[in-house]
Prior knowledge:
The chain is an alpha+beta fold.
Amino acid sequence: VDYKKIAKLTEKVEINDDILRRELPEMMKEVQRRRYKLIEGRLTVHAPALFAELIEMEKEQEKLVKSLDLEKNYQRIVTAKEGTGGKSGEFFFFSSDENLVIKTISKKELNTLLEILPDFVRHYKENPNSLIAKIFGVFTFERSEPYEQYHLLLMKNVCGYQSKYVERKYDLKGSTYTRFTIPQDENPSIYELEHRDLKDVDFNRFQHKIHVSPN
């Protein structure tokens, strides 16, 4: 299989009332019932064949469908706001069950991802239990009027565990420059360490290393 060739393939779908009514009648009924205003444009699906292989390797495929249910995600959709992606400025949307993440990415990131995608799929085929976040799709949405372009990534949320199982959270970038949450002159309690998003300097100070068994 020539993965590099497949990675360059795309599918383009026009988004408007007529097409949704014909192709996704149940979704269109929900859109009308909720009185949503449909934004018309074109959706480009990048490398659908390769991402289909990644989805087929997913053990909980039925869970993926439930995670994208419009009714269950309604409240999060109406309260979603731009600028929730931290310093990067990218937009994040978490499904209601915390299983999936939809994230905006730059054109440069899109091109890089498509370039490494063949190796990404091979890696998962050889390492089905890999802890690298699994990506289920990459899309480009072009709004008709006014013209706007967004690149979107659909991925599994590797942090989608119940809070009772999480002892601490570290956002690690591989740099120590301004990468701390707890100032050096503070001595945090165990409660603070468990309820704050810590960073690289905090890791070196409080954690030092991660102990992982051979299994």
